[in-house]
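New to this. Help decode both lines:
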Amino acid sequence: MTGRRTCPVEGTLIVRRRAVPAVLAAAVLLLTAGCSSGETGPSGQDDSASPSRTAPGSSAPPRQAAEETPPAQGSVEVVRTVAEGLDSPWGLAPLPGGGLLVASRDDGTIVRVDEKTGKKTELGEVPGVSAAGEGGLLGIALSPDYASDRMVYAYFTSASDNRIVRMIYDGRKPAGEQLGAPDTVFKGIPKGFIHNGGRIAFGPDKMLYVGTGESGDTGLSQDKDSVGGKILRLTPEGEPAPGNPFPDSPVYSYGHRNVQGLAWDGKQRLFASEFGQDTWDELNAIEPGGNYGWPEAEGRSGDKRFRNPVGQWTTAEASPSGIAHAEGSIWMAGLRGKRLWRIPLNGTAASAKPQAFLEGEYGRLRTVVAAGGDRLWLVTSNTDGRGSPKGGDDRILELRVT
């Protein structure tokens, strides 16, 4: 394996409150793609996978004899702009009764957006957020029992680590006072100026999945005793989930550099997007206990110890962040790439060449969330210190996709 260069910085990193986190080149199994400097810092940011098993503890529907393959060519239509004027938006969580919760990385606040009118109401500030570099208030998710417990989970960078808290959301209280006191469910995730991970999501098994980064310390990714450079699987209370691949460990998969997106397909198979360094960004199909190669491998590798990605992209094309599954494809937001990728799937393999949409039209794209059927919510990321904000940035868009 050759020595690695330092990933070129996409924009200048500035340490301050508004901290910065910051065609298809060659085909690899019908896909190509690279480094991850949508969140690049001084060293960059920011397998043909075997058929994936169901996540432990989940009750998957019976497999059909054949996968339903989406058409090779898809489409994207921007239906409308849902909201404008958001400050460094990162995580987004749709509420079951309507409304979208959005986390501000730099302000450490969560706002509710009325998806019909675009009106924004601040719930409150998450205490203890230390925003610098690529850290701050990152992913948010709703409890699987949200209808009864009203719990909102948040992943953030504190003064000492990255951690996950949960808070009761009470919309009956005055704006700015609607978040209850935080209850820490998991802490000790390594923090750095770069590579803080941050995406959280509850899976079909009602367990909490967490994408972490190696905080710039590449050795952590292969260290199964560290929670850096991993995908974690936790109970809602923050304990290692039953059925995890390593006894008494929260680690679900390892060998990651900086996981940024998590999504499940209709058969409850987990996919994750990941920042590479100088060469390849990745979309991976996640297997329990799988080793995804970093820092020994970046992108596809001939080393059978490591699982190869479903797809890989160059840094300039992707620097991927959030992902969602809709209409038989994974939809992947690109930061430095400033485009939305469609990766049509057959099982855990790409069924056709990926397509790029919205290239350069809305700048950096941070988060994409399924909105039901053929709809997606898409969040831009131009006020994060690495973009070039235009009037109205940042914004949430509603998309229709096929």
About this structure: The chain is about 0% helix and 35% strand. Helices lie at 146-149. The mean pLDDT is 88.
